[in-house]
Amino acid sequence: MVRDLILAFPQTNYCALGLSIFAIIFLSVGRDYVNPWVKKRSPVPLPLELILVIIATIFSVIVDLKKNYDVKIVDYIPQGMPMPSLPHFDLIPYLLNDAFAIAIVSYMFDLYAVGLMHTLASFFPVYPTGASLSRSAVCEQSGANTQLYTLFSSALLLTVIVFVGPLLEPLPMVGSATSLVLIYDWCLCNFTKARWRLDRMS
């Protein structure tokens, strides 16, 4: 891995690298210093990831990162909801064994809703759903305490899909990638601290 990084170093896009460094500093300082200060004065912390997305998108539009600096952006985002269509039943023989195993493992009452959601989602060109560590971490950092947050996050996502999607097309990919990396880093650090406390107690 280190060897590949060294060999690929001459191909580095320094503009994208600079954006990544800025995003790391922005999110790290905001998470470790700004939000703790805000939480003492407000029950709602600053949405750092959303602020970063807005800043990165505006900056990308102003300097035209894709054209002038060859920075990869989100680019085209389809607007509106796709029309439902029948799933590809010809794939059933290839998926039957795995589906049966998953059904046995996930035979729990709280997963009935997930199964129903997957059934309905099969009529649309969407990705299979599942647990998202990054999304859970963002919600935890935002102060969410109940599963009701899924209602608001889903409504926000629907708004983005139907109305706001084209506005996010200039967003640099490094912005969202950096957010995910730092979120996983935050989760790993919290897990390590919790494991250390448990091991020390035992």
Number of strands: 0
Order of helices and strands: HHHHHHHHH
Largest sheet: none
Q: Which range best describes the helical content: under 10%, 10-25%, 25-40%, 40-55%, 55-70% or over 70%?
A: 55-70%
- Count of alpha and pi helical runs: 9
Indicate the low-confidence ranges by residue numbers: none
Separation of the first and last Cα atoms: 36 Å
Mean pLDDT: 78
Specify the structural class: mainly alpha
Please characterize this protein's 3D structure:
There is one protein chain. The chain is mainly α and 202 residues long. It has a domain at 1-74 and 170-200. 65% of the residues lie in helices and 0% in strands. It contains 9 helices and no strands. It has helices at 2-8, 14-39, 48-63, 65-69, 92-105, 112-121, 133-141, 149-164, 173-201. The protein is globular.
